[in-house]
Amino acid sequence: MKSTESSTYDYVVVGAGSAGAIIAARLSDDADVSVLLLEAGPDDGAFTIRMPAAVSINIKRNRYNWQFRTEPQAALGGRTLYQPRGKVLGGSSSLNGMIFIRGHALDYDRWVDEGATGWSYADVVPYFKRIEDFCEGADPYRGVGGAIPVTRGWASSPLHAAFIEAGQQAGHPLSADVNGRQQHGVSYFDKNIKGGERWSTSRGYLAPRRSRSNLQILTNVAVQRVIFDKRTATGVEVSFGGGTQRFSAAREVILCAGTFNTPKILMLSGVGKADDLKRLAIPVIEDLPDVGANLQDHTEVHVQYRCTQPITLFRELKPLKKLYNGIHWLIDRGGQAATNHYDTGAFLFADDSAPHPDCQLHFVPIVYNNSVERRVDCHGFRVHAGPMRPLSRGSVSLRSADPRDPPVIQPNYFTEAKDWCNMRRIVDLSRDIFAQKAFDAFRGPEMSPGAGVRDRGAMDDFIREWGDTGYHPSSTCRMGTDDRAVVAPDGSVRGVTGLRICDASIMPSIVSGNLNAPVMMMAEKISDLIRGRQPLPPERVSVVARAGEKRQTEEAST
């Protein structure tokens, strides 16, 4: 690509991640339109991206990762927290833990109450089903034939079976399918792994379409800003190789750059809070004060125990075992490297008055010094435990008018008392599960928080020292119909034309679970809206908010 080139496409899609790859692929299904997909990172051909057990490698590598950090968090002892985000074809779907969770039906019905007309659970069920090729077949809740294989975790270790049994011994229900009728309970989790390989949106959506003449994909191209003619988006300006280039969009520019980079690009383009833009000498195109506001993220702590038997993943991390596991995977995509090891987990109630489960546990048979970068040299097991609907709100803002500078990420973790209360309760729930008979044969001393951490002050000190992000930032370009919303329910940016957003930034509020599946669903739905197609017909299904209760989804919104 030369700096003198000038190209026009019908659609320019910014970011080839969980949403952008899907939108570009679906738009290219119409043979009479041209689509340009721009990705700041490289191609996703590395074997470490496809190898499920290599997830911790890529999360730390800057080649595929924006490697953001938050501002110092006052409630967490002034610590800055690491925020990895995908910078590669497939985006964070090429880096994440491959856990496929929709969230709860009531999350989407709440979205409607928050102004996201057309996004009730009945409205989005058919799009969730369209994404997936579920290993256990189709039913009213699940789909087959989609681009993303979804497989079910299993008891790959006796410790996973113990977790499921212990959860029930502690009085929690068993969920047969957390993406089906009942999320509440302990369960085997779904994952985007098939044949021992990760399936990202690049693998599922782009790979089958890359030879199309109407779809061009450019990697290692960073978008600096959207170009406007008055209030109409007409293209983008990008950087590459020390120079700049402009690409024109005859119909629309679609930002899919993620919760941090999408508001950054908007503000650099003159769309945001006018006073803030003027201070940086950025010409104001549209005064939208809530661009970058409303940041929400999941937090977690790790409740960990030594294991009295040598059956954890610690034995797989010896140099010769790692070599063996890598060779095994390279030969036949089998063995310990062929899974993410997050086979089991739970959705429980920290607050008994909550309308549906408000905390999530991810169980894994290994222990760390509360950091994926600092392994503890012993056998052990842990849960990643955290609240799903925090009340604390943060923001994303510009550090300067220079596109090369990372955004200012201020999550304001634990600024609300309820978030502290819920986290304390979640630690208690986790300890109670590990105290059950099913773990008697495996349970050694508690490593974290530690047996001596019992009173409120000690627990708060533990949270302050070790509380971390769950890597699920959202909602910085909130969707709605009120005057403060950044985008309308069809993803179009308010106050301008020719510009749309689709990624986790437009969620009205964070959902109760991992975010990758919801973002893929949103991309499928918004793709239909961009193409002028009628949305898929709503599907009403019976859902359970709490085991023993039954409820129908709300009427599909219009």
List descriptors.
558 residues; alpha+beta; seven-stranded mixed beta sheet; 13 helices; 24% helix; globular
What does this structure look like?
This protein is of the alpha+beta class. Strands 1, 2, 11, 12, 13, 14 and 25 form a 7-stranded mixed beta sheet that branches. Residues 1-6 and 552-558 have low confidence and may be disordered. It contains 13 helices and 27 strands. It folds into 2 domains: 1-76 and 84-152 and 191-292 and 476-558, FAD/NAD(P)-binding domain, CATH 3.50.50.60; 154-188 and 299-387 and 414-466, Cholesterol Oxidase, domain 2.
Write the layout of secondary structure elements.
Blueprint: E1 7-14, H1 20-28, E2 35-38, H2 47-50, H3 55-60, E3 68-69, E4 82-83, H4 105-113, H5 121-131, E5 132-134, E6 148-152, H6 158-169, E7 185-188, E8 190-191, E9 193-194, E10 197-198, H7 201-206, E11 215-218, E12 222-229, E13 232-240, E14 243-255, H8 258-268, E15 271-272, H9 274-279, E16 286-287, E17 299-307, H10 319-332, E18 344-348, E19 359-364, E20 380-387, E21 395-397, E22 408-410, H11 417-434, E23 443-448, H12 456-466, E24 468-469, E25 499-501, H13 516-530, E26 542-543, E27 551-552
Parallel strand pairs: 1-2, 1-14, 2-11, 5-6, 14-25, 15-16
Antiparallel strand pairs: 3-4, 6-8, 7-18, 9-10, 12-13, 13-14, 17-20, 17-23, 17-24, 18-19, 19-20, 21-22, 26-27
Radius of gyration: 23 Å
CATH superfamily caption of the largest domain = FAD/NAD(P)-binding domain
What does the main sheet amount to? 7 strands, mixed
Shape: globular
Mean pLDDT: 95
Number of helices: 13
Termini distance?
A: 45 Å
Number of domains: 2
CATH topology of the largest domain: FAD/NAD(P)-binding domain
Strand percentage, roughly? Answer: 15-25%
Number of E-type strands: 27
In which range does the helix fraction lie? 10-25%
- The CATH class assignment of the largest domain is Alpha Beta
